[in-house]
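Title: Prediction job returns without error message
Component: structure pipeline
Severity: low
Priority: P3
Assignee: unassigned

Description:
Job completed but the reporter wants confirmation the result is attached to the right record. Sequence as submitted:
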Amino acid sequence: MKSNTSKVKDLLAKWQEWSQSADRSEDGWQACFPDWIPLMAAAATLMTQRITTDEELQLVETCWQMSEEDEYLADYAKANFALCRATVIRLITSRFPEVRWQVYEVLGEGGDGAERWLRHALDDEDSYCRRRAILSLAKILPGDADKIAARFINDPDPYIRQVVSDLTRS
């Protein structure tokens, strides 16, 4: 019987081959892969296991990046946060903003235990990622929301300025 790592690896290899000739004209084209659900299910299962190698983390990271449009793995992590928490925390360091913003969104469902990670995310280099971190912090209701909002009230990104109002209303 194949390990989950092998399943994800094999399905990703099939996806890579399929993607060479796939129609990429629509957002979310990645999910048109005929074995999308088995791939995402295998990646979701891998997320709940103790990830011990860089290869396993990279496999999960790749799947998160690919599923950005349908947020399959982010939704799974929200619904199974306790099981996926360790992997979600490790994905904070992803080099892909498409992964990090989803991680910050998931952490918004993580309660007070996720607050320190979201505070770290306020320094993310990507403005969309920072915006998602602010929105997730608003769900957690930090005691110093006004102080955090003051930090971003004059941010160059107009969308960040807009979401800090959500933080202050919380």
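Comment from assignee: result matches the submitted record. The radius of gyration is 17 Å.
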